[in-house]
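Troubleshooting: if your tokenizer reports a length mismatch, compare against these two reference records.
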Amino acid sequence: MAYEYLFKYIIIGDTGVGKSCLLLQFTDRRFQAVYDLTIGVEFGARMITVDKKQIKLQIWDTAGQESFRSITRSYYRGAAGALLVYDVTRRDTFNHLASWLEDARQRASSSMVITLVGNKCDLDSRREVGRDEAEAFAREHGLLFTETSAKTGINVEEAFACTARAIYERLQEGVLDINNECSYFVIEFYQRICLVHLVRLCQLSCMNFEKYRILLCRLTCLLINSNFATGVGKPPSQIW
């Protein structure tokens, strides 16, 4: 399906807050109760409509483990939006938000739209983080805010859609420049090359962990190579 814009998203936050489940609920409209920890990054995409414009969201779901922070930090580059996710039933995941936000602000554009997402709101009886406290954090740091449940689907659509609307508004206001080579809009050719190598990683997943991690690092280098993104960098055959 044709689209007019492509926005790159990154989902960040501690391990186990439900980042992968949010992505699965948004892209496939289903919930998977048992989910393996994300190794490095995962990818998803979906079309939405904003102001009668077809927009494709390219979503990178990152690992929350500290051992992968050096890899996931590379994915901030070129992101138009970020979902900063915590678990409303785990106070520690909320306490770590400042660290994740500092990473995002240092490594991404100042124009990136960030939405604070309190996930697992269906588990209200186990809540450790109040909505008012999270809203105050969002106001203090200039973030959008919503609470979601990846399990029931509550507000999952809105979390991604409100971020897209804010990006689109900034685009219309001229805050974002789609023609800038450091823009936050990823060209289709770039996307397809990345997907080819993601498939290759899946096919090689039977390899030992260290070799898998090396391949993932190479993919990261491909993704963050801005010259390649503009069509003048090394072709994949020279990188792989």
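Reference record two:
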Amino acid sequence: MADIRLASSSVRTKNKFQPSVENLVTPGDVITSDTCFMRGHGTYTADDRLHASVAGVVERVNKLICVRPLKTRYNGEVGDVVVGRIIEVGQRRWKVDTHSKLDSVLMLSSVNLPGGELRRRSEEDEKMMRHYLKENDLISAEVHSVFSDGSLSLHTRSLKYGKPVSCGDREVIARMRNCILALSHHKMMLFDTSILYTYDNSLKFSCKDILKPEIMNEVVEMTRLRLEQETL
């Protein structure tokens, strides 16, 4: 005979990695009155009982009990790559909002100078700080160190950090790349004039359409005719 069971009689196995409702606490809730447990983050002791100091999920590691907050600010560590927004230009430093508990700091000595020049920062560089980065600019940076109060010191000394490339700049780069591919596909010489003419001829088409065979042929042929006219 078939073994038929009611759904109510089946036993469900709880995923031990998924926090249950029973483990949720709010500030002031009693977690345990057993004094053999150690107090961890998000807890405090009162009247020989362990209480939650934040709203979150109770986690236990051996004899250590802590409460992981449901919502918290970013706690940075050395080597983290962060995206932040400049909120203030100060004396030889920028204040950066990285969604952490305290504002992060980007020192003038921790950024690349234009052209990658390596030298000590001068008073002239300090006057040009707002030219490099100003309020509301987005930057990517790496956490260089963590101060004793938990605030972060950032740096952008690598070329992969700094201000993100704007949408307009990305489109120019993509169009230039497609023009070079079109010239190469038609076995045309690559030099500054041919690339510039091809770029100008491609402006009436969208960037993604340049590599379509019929449009590529038209753009390159216009470039070829223009170059031939100059040699006459």
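Descriptive notes for reference record two:
- The radius of gyration is 30 Å.
- The helical segments are 123-127, 129-132, 167-185, 192-202, 213-231.
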